[in-house]
Amino acid sequence: MSGVSTLTTPDKPPVRAWLPTMMTLAAIWGCSFLFISVGVRELHPLYLALGRVLAGSAVLVAFLVIKRESLPREPRIWAHTFVLGAIGSAIPWTLFGYGEQRVPSLLAGIWNGITPLIVLPVAVLVFRTEKFTVQRVIGLLVGFVGMMVVLGAWNLQGGADLTGQILCMAAAVFYGIAVPYQKRFVAGSKLSGTALSAGLLLCATVQLAIVAPIATGEAPPMPWTLSPEVIGSVLALGGLGSGVAFVLSMRNIRLIGASMSSMVTYLMPIFAIAVGVLVLDEHLTWYQPVGALVVLTGVAVSQGILRRPVRASKKSLEPAAAPVP
Length: 325
Known about the structure:
Elements: H1 15-39, H2 45-67, H3 75-99, H4 105-112, H5 115-127, H6 134-151, H7 159-185, H8 193-216, H9 228-261, H10 264-280, H11 287-302
């Protein structure tokens, strides 16, 4: 019999049960920036985002049919998913498209990593779902320094590169607003994450279907006019990044909890940089990966991952709060 009581050591699934899934998620989401870079070669960013949400909606609705679940029915839920469709999908995915017309895909992947740094102050100051602590403030300050390093604040000269980085940063800011918004207004719903996400993407599809033709002044291109690479990128962004990846993410959350599952955030920039260099022959300046490491360090500090270990307590063994899909 083990010297540690089973009452103080919760059962944990073996690493082999969740690590392959986490690596697959990191690869899918990290490679999404490559697919965006390929997609905007022939598609306007608005139409690329429209194709993405349309493909993602189709995959998630198919999962609902297989699981025999229904879409949300409450008007209140639909109102909030409409907002989330805009700030969590339509706007940031369009901004990343505009940004990657000006900067390498690997740099967009690095900027995506700042999302947790945006979530915390928004959650504390706007939605009041979290509280500041000394550790979190230190993490935010470290992350801010890292953002300035990635940006090359000492060498700013304007132009397309600066504009592209600001657009990618803005996309991450919208992600950071969407997460606490969802936690504040939607997380308490009894609906499954698949149903909520399907509703969110359907709302984003309607929004972009209306806005894209007006903003671009042209009809969407017919699929047969696009190259196979661009069509494949759109399907990968929607079907994999917004469909299959969500199902895999929910599996890991159930296995190891929301906090541990969020570690995928630290792996995504690695894949984004790797595929950018190997597939698109992109290049980094020395301070961009250095800044990315500083940002991720700040994220780890603010989330309590880098801290002194403490003895197990009853509170630490409570199940994690329901995650935001």
